[in-house]
Design the sequence.
């Protein structure tokens, strides 16, 4: 099905031309965020080596540091406070010194002080205290408010001057000195419910949307990026891959086309729309954002093409990727085009998975499901924008076109999944495949990274009680059904090929909690996560499942996983409070928004605090 996806009015055409030269602009930058963690000199990693933690003596926490060290180093050593109470696991306090935190929110700090007292397990309280603010504490590499942007005039070219009226935010993934569209959107997701109560936090997230929109417009096939040149922030060294269309390597850290990266940009926008004050829910929509939406739809349409035409000749490939590597999952076969896919499926290709591993068959079902959900939501946002009266009259026809394309593509993808993405398993019955090619071939497995088959209800694609999903869940949570279900001596759960067959990823355990309706399963899985931090009180990327205590892991600083864990505790607080709250707090239903509103009105709020919205 052909889709119209052109914004044809002259202003946009001229802007697109300017974007080709965008990275050549030189301008005065602004300082980095409020207390960047050191210089990140020791945190720039191209690969993800396994870290084996030796027994380390704990250090006393200092509220103020003379020098901010790399958080990779900081997170690898346990820290204690004199006020810490003894607990069974004696988990440390791992928030960085206050003057080294990259963004400060009194709303978050006040919430932490009240909420953690409600948790009956004091180790769980400590783990939440470390993980919930981790993205704010450590990964806001650069942020300017709208006012600061106006003062700095970071954007000099006349067609781009409007950007000086907008906030911008650059979020790194943790120990890798770059922003992943997917990771950053999901890292920030846990704070979205708080933006109605914290204007500074709201502006931070609005800045993240603005930054992602710019990145998508300029390099829509790419997944990870350098900070903007006018930020004057240190960049990581990279290896230039052979990619077509050719990316702007001055802005791009890595250019793996992943359908979920584009869907994550839409998630960041949608969640802002759902959580912002009513009068501001559409405030993120500007020219950059509309152009980014256009780019997303263009990529979806292009990547819906089959390998061969109806006459049997190869079609032109919208994207190719080749890397000089001896790791098969780091590059694509067939001269960088990927294995063939059939026509007429309604599905969209993805060259890589959310783990950044190459797909085997490019119709990646969790990614397609995710995109379908976000495109449907996008169509409603665009409709609301047109109906709000805020859209310029000359743009409305083009926005209407984007709205229709979004809705049509969403429905087409969903139908394609139902027709081609469900296969009959001899043991588990009808299940969702992880990948298909449209010719009848499929990959039956799951990977812990989101989007995954396990996360389909989380994404909003199906109900947790959906029969095919339940069959799929049984398949992927057993060694007999999922080759990457790791049945370790000390830890069991879903892993993936990115690290290897010895490691369970806590992301998979966390999603298992949020998609379970069984109290015992939830409690057991939560306990497994709690006992596998290697005594460091943070969620790591993956855990060696055949060694005790979580002492052997990858990535001591992986903010996405920390945010997902915190989001899970907030989920349980609203859905199963009896599993985590002390008995004295079970008298009335916990509703996060009501809790935050009460905090705002309480005497604990310091009226002179500039970080609390008046």
Sequence:
């Amino acid at each position: 099905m052909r889709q119209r996806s052109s914004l044809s009015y002259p202003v946009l055409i001229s802007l697109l031309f300017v974007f080709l030269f965008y990275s050549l602009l030189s301008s005065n930058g602004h300082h980095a965020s409020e207390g960047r963690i050191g210089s990140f000199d020791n945190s720039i990693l191209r690969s993800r080596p396994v870290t084996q933690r030796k027994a380390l003596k704990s250090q006393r926490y200092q509220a103020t540091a003379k020098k901010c060290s790399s958080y990779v180093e900081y997170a690898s050593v346990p820290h204690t406070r004199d006020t810490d109470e003894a607990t069974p696991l004696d988990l440390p306090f791992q928030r960085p010194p206050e003057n080294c935190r990259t963004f400060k929110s009194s709303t978050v700090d006040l919430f932490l002080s009240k909420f953690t007292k409600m948790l009956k397990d004091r180790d769980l309280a400590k783990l939440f205290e470390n993980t919930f603010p981790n993205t704010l504490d450590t990964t806001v590499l650069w942020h300017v408010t709208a006012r600061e942007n106006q003062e700095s005039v970071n954007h000099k070219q006349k067609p781009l001057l409007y950007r000086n009226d907008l906030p911008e935010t650059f979020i790194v993934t943790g120990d890798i000195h770059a922003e992943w569209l997917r990771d950053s959107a999901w890292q920030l997701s846990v704070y979205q419910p708080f933006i109605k109560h914290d204007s500074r936090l709201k502006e931070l997230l609005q800045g993240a949307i603005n930054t992602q929109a710019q990145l998508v417009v300029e390099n829509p096939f790419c997944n990870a990026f350098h900070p903007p040149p006018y930020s004057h922030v240190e960049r990581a060294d990279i290896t230039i891959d052979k990619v077509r269309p050719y990316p702007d390597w001055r802005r791009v850290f890595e250019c793996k086309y992943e359908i979920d990266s584009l869907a994550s940009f839409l998630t960041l926008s949608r969640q802002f729309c759902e959580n912002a004050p009513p009068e501001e829910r559409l405030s993120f929509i500007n020219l950059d954002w509309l152009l980014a939406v256009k780019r997303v739809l263009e990529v979806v349409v292009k990547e819906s093409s089959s390998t061969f035409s109806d006459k049997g000749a190869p079609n032109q490939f919208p994207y190719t990727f080749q890397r000089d590597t001896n790791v098969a999952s780091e590059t694509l076969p067939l001269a960088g085009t990927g294995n063939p896919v059939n026509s007429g499926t309604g599905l969209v290709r993805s060259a890589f998975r959310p783990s950044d591993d190459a797909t085997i068959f490019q119709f990646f079902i969790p990614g397609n499901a995710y995109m379908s959900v976000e495109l449907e939501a996008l169509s409603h946002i665009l409709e609301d924008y047109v109906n709000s009266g805020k859209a310029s009259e000359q743009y409305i026809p083009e926005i209407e076109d984007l709205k229709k394309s979004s809705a049509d593509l969403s429905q087409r993808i969903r139908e394609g999944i139902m027709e081609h993405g469900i296969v009959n398993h001899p043991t588990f019955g009808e299940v969702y495949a992880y990948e298909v090619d449209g010719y009848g071939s499929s990959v039956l497995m799951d990977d812990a990274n989101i989007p995954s088959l396990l996360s389909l209800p989380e994404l909003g694609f199906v109900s947790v009680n959906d029969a095919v999903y339940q069959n799929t869940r049984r398949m992927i949570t057993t060694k007999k059904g999922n080759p990457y279900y790791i049945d370790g001596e000390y830890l069991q759960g879903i892993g993936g090929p990115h690290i290897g067959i010895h490691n369970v990823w806590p992301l998979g355990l966390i999603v298992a909690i949020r998609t379970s309706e069984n109290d015992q399963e939830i409690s057991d899985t939560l306990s497994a996560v709690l006992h596998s931090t290697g005594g460091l009180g943070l969620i790591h990327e993956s855990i060696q499942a055949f060694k005790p205590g979580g002492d052997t892991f990858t990535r001591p600083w992986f903010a996405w996983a920390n945010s997902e864990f915190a989001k899970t505790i907030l989920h349980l607080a609203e859905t199963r409070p009896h599993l985590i709250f002390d008995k004295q707090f079970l008298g009335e239903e916990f509703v996060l928004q009501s809790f935050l509103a009460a905090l705002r009105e309480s005497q604990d709020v310091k009226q002179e605090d500039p970080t609390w919205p008046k």
